[in-house]
Amino acid sequence: MSMASDPVRVAAAQMTSISDVASNFATCSRLVKEAASAGAKLLCFPEAFSFVATNDGDSVRVAEPLDGPIMNQYCSLARESNIWLSLGGFQEKGSDPQHLCNTHVIVDDTGKIRSTYKKIHLFDVDVPNGRVYKESRFTEPGKDIVAVDSPIGRLGLSVCYDLRFPEMYQLLRFKHEARVLLVPSAFTKVTGEAHWEILLRARAIETQCYVIAAAQAGKHNDKRESYGNTLIIDPWGTVVGRLPDRLSTGIVVADIDLSYVNSVREKMPIDQQRKPIDFWKSASL
């Protein structure tokens, strides 16, 4: 697919998914129609867009293969609205009944799945407010870094906790030639307040890519709350799109200008100035 030359409109969605697949699909359908009406060629949804579990094990029970009825609904939605969708963090059935894959799915405007990325870095963390998360109990980690061409340029795929591992985004930029990084997320309120925006802007600056970060927001249930603050950031690190309300359900729209990516990269040619470094080799003192 040829690279876009003129600015192309994109949208990022913010929502509060719950443990009701049909209700979440109704919300997503409304946001897709809104994005299509705004002229967006791509709409990015957050992690766990189709389902957020109330109880441990619920996500594994609702997990489906990519050709199952849940994903088929979203593929039909993309086709009917003539828009590409980034479905960031789908509960894909794993290799055994006890596990799923946290899969980022790219669907084109004909409803065809163009690419998938399985989340590599799993959220096994003791959050400072006392809540313990252990995503690896029910999720199989992915192994492959993935980029895919689209109408808005080459997309580098990731999911949520991947954001804290900059070497992944370096590979997406310098090895896989990404120009737009997608970071669908469900950041916790505590970690989001501390680190969300600064990490996203850092990833944009150090890779000289646009970053589109669709976020879950608000209280999903009595146990779980997400930070929100859906953002679109340009390759200079400037926020060019943000929902006015950090917790509202809705979309933010911005234009992706690949000529600006080229300009930033030409003026600061870090791709030519990078030096090979062996991070694992200890220096002698």
From TrEMBL:
Matching entries from Pfam families are given as:
CN_hydrolase
InterPro entries, from UniProt? C-N_Hydrolase, C-N_Hydrolase_sf, Nit1/2_C-N_Hydrolase
Q: Where is the CN hydrolase domain?
A: 8-258
Q: Which GO terms describe its molecular function?
A: hydrolase activity, acting on carbon-nitrogen (but not peptide) bonds
Keyword set includes Hydrolase: yes
Keyword Cytoplasm set for record: no
Q: Which UniProt keywords apply?
A: Hydrolase
| Gene3D superfamilies named in the record | Carbon-nitrogen hydrolase (3.60.110.10)
Domain of life, per UniProt, equals Eukaryota
Q: What is this protein called?
A: CN hydrolase domain-containing protein
